[in-house]
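Let's practice the habit of predicting before peeking. Look at the sequence and jot down your guess about where helices and strands might fall. Then scroll down.
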Amino acid sequence: MGDREDFAYRKRVYVETTIPSFYFENRQEPDMVARREWTRQWWDGKARLMEVVTSLAVVEELEQGDHPNKSAALELIADLPLLPVVPAVDVIVEAYIRYHVMPADPRGDALHLALASYHHCHFLVTWNCNHLANANKFEHIRYVNAELGLCSPILTTPVELLATEGE
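Done guessing? Here is the structure:
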């Protein structure tokens, strides 16, 4: 087996819709520029050292609407493995909604969290800090996932994945 550093970088990471969106973000407000730059730094550097996955839900969300760089965002994730939505994932989504872990839109945040949890992702990387990467929700998510017999992914933003041990 490889050294400790090699092991640390082989984590499975679920990429939620905001990541390819922010990679091509063109708004010029300082917070938007910072998110774009952190997303690009992580994607172009650290992400290649991880097992990065996504889902058809992300593809479908990116395909909706008429927004700039839609094609580029879809192209960015085109080669990523897609985690399947199996019947158990639908049951998890329903539980998240029933226990008020996520909003009632079953094809949105609840689905992303269910996919990452069911498929044993170590991280769910997102810029959605209202419903996913929200420290005020972590304990509730962990509790419900434990009740469902699931592990809980670390819900994080790309900036938190930039630093590595020893740097």
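How did you do? The chain has a mean pLDDT of 88.
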